[in-house]
């Protein structure tokens, strides 16, 4: 699949692959919905929601958007910068916890 | 281009490692994104910037939800619909998700058939994609109307933390705008495909450039991105 230089995506991929991914996206979405329907709670709920979310996102980006067949230079240029978002999430988690702490300690009883 | 990369590599054993290939692609070539045309590369870079826009929205939502002392409204109940006397949680959102995923599937097939020069099937599949997208926006409009009638405002709502309304309207509103723009783009490109612009090399009315079936793929990139963002909104806003 991966020669030294990227081949671009000019060649058509098999329709079968798209149907397969489509089917998987349906199944994963149905699973996400069932988590809510059956009131799965706690750590199992969060981990399953995030797992299904990342698998679905990966399928869409890799197959539907053809990123798996692009050059490594493009793949990394697109996939590496969003990791900054994860750092931002960590920063804002600390900030939100601090805000909650001050609200609970200063606004208690209001 | 390929030869340049090969010359810069050690000729000895086996295929070059991942990192060799990566450094070769950035260093030895004049064109780092060879294989992807400038149109496609620019669409990818636009989508990367849009990722940060939606990333910031979702982080803002996370921050206000984590820091409020008032309980967050239960999305499972807020977005429930009564169908035939029984209350189904999140049913409209689930249908919207399936509609958008289906539109991504038809779009992927339109791109594949476009590269096979199957003009009519490509245009029809793009129109089906646009129709599913319009259905999605219609259901979102229904959802907004329902919530507004129930008293949800960006500054308050009847069930809990006030921030619920502001984040809901901002995130789904921005996503709905993206879907709407996508529908317009799809219809425009589908018309060009149907007319055969990409087969006879007719120049575009706005850019005066000759397009190709790659334009279908680039429109598809944008469309799949809209679906991708919905995957995150569905998981983080509606299911969390």
Order of helices and strands of chain B: HHHHEEHHHHH
CATH topology of the largest domain in chain B: Four Helix Bundle (Hemerythrin (Met), subunit A)
Radius of gyration of chain B: 23 Å
Helix percentage range of chain A = over 70%
Q: Spatial order of the strands in the main sheet of chain B?
A: 1-2
Provide a descriptive summary of the structure in words:
The complex is a heterodimer of chains A (110) and B (240). With 110 residues, chain A is an all-alpha fold. Chain A has two domains: 1-72; 80-110. Chain A is built from four helices and no strands. The radius of gyration of chain A is 20 Å and the shape is flat. The relative contact order of chain A is 0.10. With 240 residues, chain B is an all-alpha fold. Chain B has two domains: 1-35, no CATH class; 37-239, Up-down Bundle (Four Helix Bundle (Hemerythrin (Met), subunit A)), CATH 1.20.120. Chain B is built from nine helices and two strands, in the order ααααββααααα. Chain B has helices at residues 2-7, 18-27, 38-67, 75-78, 91-115, 119-149, 163-195, 197-200, 214-239; strands at residues 81-83, 86-88. Chain B has a two-stranded antiparallel sheet with strand order 1-2. Chain B starts with a helix and ends with a helix. The interface between A and B is large, with 61 and 67 residues.
How does the SSE layout of this entry go?
The complex is a heterodimer of chains A (110) and B (240).
Chain A: H1 15-37, H2 42-64, H3 72-79, H4 83-106
Chain B: H1 2-7, H2 18-27, H3 38-67, H4 75-78, E1 81-83, E2 86-88, H5 91-115, H6 119-149, H7 163-195, H8 197-200, H9 214-239
Antiparallel strand pairs in B: 1-2
Helix pairs in contact in B: 3-7, 3-9, 5-6, 5-9, 6-7, 7-9
Summarize the structure.
Chain A has helices spanning 15-37, 42-64, 72-79, 83-106. With 110 residues, chain A is mainly α. Chain A has two domains: 1-72; 80-110.
